[in-house]
Design a protein that fits this description.
The structure holds two protein chains of two kinds. Chain A is mostly helical. Helix content of chain A is 84%, strand content 0%. Classes of the chains: A mainly alpha, B mainly alpha. Chain B: GO terms for molecular function: sodium:proton antiporter activity.
C-alpha cells in the first residue's frame, strides 16, 4: 500500500507539467508519462488485492499512451507551432 | 530471499519514478524534461513490474506484469524519440545554456537555441 501512496506525487508532478507546459510537446510527454505512472499504480493495486485482471488494464493504459504520443508526434511534424 | 529481492526492485522503481517526475516538473526546457522523464520513468516502471513478477511468481499476475514490463521497455523510448523529433522540426526552442545543436545544423537550418536574455523564468 505504501508504494501506491508514494507514486501519487509523481502523477501530480506530471499533471502540473501538463497544466503549465509552454509547448504542446510538453503536455504530450507529461500525459504520456502520467499514463505510464498510472499503469504502474494499477499493477501495484493488482498485486495488493490479488486481482490479476487489473494487469490487463495496466497493459491497455500503456498501449493507449503510446498510441496517443505517436499521433501527437505525427501532428507536430506536419504542422509548425507558434512557440 | 526472493521476497527481499522483490521489495528491493519495487522500491528502486518507485524512487526512480518519483525522481523522474520531479525532473519533468523542474527542468528548464523541453528536451531536458523529456530526457529525465523518459529514462527514469521507463526504468522505474520496469523495476516495479519486475518486483510484482518476483513477488507473485509464475501465475497469471506475474506473467502479465512481465509482459507489461517488456512492452513499456520497448514503446516508451520510441514515443519519446518521435516526440523529440517532431518538436525539433516544429521549432521548439532549446534552452539558452545549450552548447551544441547538431540536428538543425545537419538539416541546414539556422540554430534554434534560445537567445533571448533573461526573459524566461524571471
Amino acid at each position: 500500500m505504501v508504494p501506491i501512496i508514494v507514486l501519487i506525487p509523481a502523477a501530480l508532478f506530471c499533471l502540473y507539467r501538463a497544466l503549465i507546459g509552454p509547448s504542446i510537446a510538453d503536455r504530450a510527454i507529461a500525459v504520456d508519462m502520467m499514463g505510464v505512472v498510472f499503469s504502474a499504480i494499477t499493477g501495484l493495486i493488482a498485486l495488493q488485492y490479488k486481482l490479476n485482471y487489473l494487469l490487463d488494464i495496466s497493459i491497455a493504459l500503456a498501449v493507449i499512451s503510446f498510441i496517443g504520443a505517436l499521433a501527437l508526434a505525427k501532428f507536430l511534424e506536419k504542422r509548425s507551432l507558434d512557440d | 530471499m526472493i521476497s527481499v529481492l522483490a521489495l528491493i526492485f519495487l522500491w528502486l522503481g518507485v524512487v526512480f519514478v518519483l525522481l523522474g517526475a520531479l525532473g519533468l516538473a523542474r527542468f528548464p526546457d523541453l528536451y531536458n524534461r523529456m530526457q529525465a522523464a523518459t529514462k527514469c520513468v521507463t526504468l522505474g516502471v520496469c523495476g516495479i513490474m519486475l518486483g510484482i513478477f518476483l513477488r507473485s511468481g509464475f501465475n497469471p499476475l506475474g506473467v502479465k506484469a512481465l509482459i507489461c514490463a517488456v512492452f513499456i521497455l520497448f514503446t516508451v523510448p520510441v514515443s519519446s524519440h518521435a516526440l523529440v523529433r517532431g518538436s525539433l522540426i516544429a521549432g521548439v526552442k532549446l534552452w539558452k545554456g545549450t552548447v551544441k545543436d547538431d540536428f538543425t545544423a545537419d538539416r541546414g537550418g539556422t540554430s534554434i537555441i534560445d537567445k533571448t536574455p533573461e526573459t524566461e523564468g524571471k
